[in-house]
Amino acid sequence: MELVGHVQALWRYPVKSMLGERLQQLEVDRRGVVGDRAYALWDPQAQRVASAKNPRRWAELLAYRARYLEEPRSGEPLPPVEVHGPLDGAAVQPTSLCSNDPALVVRLAERLGRSVTLLDQAPVGASLDQYWPQVEGRAFQDVTNELMLPQGTFFDACPIHAISTATLAALRRLEPELDFAVERFRPNLLIEPTAAVQDFVEERWEGGTLAIGENLVLRVDGGCPRCVITTLAQGSLPESMEILRATARHNQVTAGIRLSVVKPGPLAVGDPVRLQVG
């Protein structure tokens, strides 16, 4: 197996479309990263999962950050999460509420202007609305359509997403005036390649498997097409539609790879990443 890189950073997102946790280690089971996108807001009126992929309604979800109060364990009930953000319209500073506090969904509904509930199990046939902005090269232009979620999950399409430092560097080199912060792409893994490559290297791993650390094995299912979320204001990052347009201009709107689990195991910053083809 070829050593192709090392894990530089890790993220987990407890609540779908909210900001997440940057961690030193994660556990991966058959479902994906344990605790990742395990909670989501549900819109009972639209019968949809709330997602910033529909920014006209849910962009403000990215103003909140969620973290677990204790480490989630595979096969065990989810621990509560703490949500930090603008939960009190009268407060100058952001506040925090726990998911087991009924006030959380009340405050979120008031802020978002829409009734919501917090789920830790995806309803059968769950879906969300996805807005496609005007970006040259995309099949859809300025239209919103329905995206069906994988059965029993709040994932959009794949359980794990990775991007390389080489891909981010390539985009910065091609469009130096834009800020291609890794946080815009919301990966679980940031991989630093061993070789001094200057392109979208991880897409060449498609069809192979990545052995990470001592036990974890992930299948590379293909490149990850980007969506409107990369363009939205989040954390300290401002709104920028040019992020998505630049990705379309230079790499057919793809940045990063989609991964699925072959063999569960732990994952830690610094772990070697080895590629097996075929």
Whole-number count of domains:
1
Going by CATH, what is the homologous superfamily? PK beta-barrel domain-like
| Gross geometry | globular
What are the low-pLDDT stretches, counting only 5+ consecutive residues below 50? none
Strand percent estimate: 35-45%
CATH-derived topology: M1 Pyruvate Kinase, Domain 3
Number of discrete helical segments: 4
- Strand order of the biggest β-sheet: 1-14-13-17-16-15-19
Helix content: 10-25%
Give the distance, in angstroms, between the N- and C-terminal Cα atoms: 11 Å
**Structural class, judged by helices and strands?**
mainly beta
**What's the SSE pattern?**
EEEEEEHEEEHEEEEHEEEHEEE
Q: What's the overall average pLDDT, rounded?
A: 95
Instruction: Work out the number of β strands.
Output: 19
User: Mind summarizing the main beta sheet?
Assistant: 7 strands, mixed, barrel
| CATH arch. level architecture | Beta Barrel
Tell me the radius of gyration.
18 Å
The CATH class name reads: Mainly Beta
Task: Offer a few descriptive terms.
278 residues, mainly beta, 4 helices, M1 Pyruvate Kinase, Domain 3, 7-stranded mixed β-barrel
How do the helices and strands line up, and which of them pair or pack?
Layout (H helix, E strand, L loop, with lengths): L1 E11 L8 E3 L1 E5 L2 E2 L6 E4 L4 E2 L5 H4 L6 E4 L12 E5 L9 E4 L4 H10 L4 E3 L7 E6 L10 E6 L11 E5 H10 L14 E5 L15 E4 L3 E10 L16 H10 L2 E10 L1 E4 L3 E5 L2
Parallel strand pairs: 13-14
Antiparallel strand pairs: 1-2, 1-14, 1-19, 3-4, 3-18, 5-6, 5-10, 7-8, 8-9, 11-12, 13-17, 15-16, 15-19, 16-17
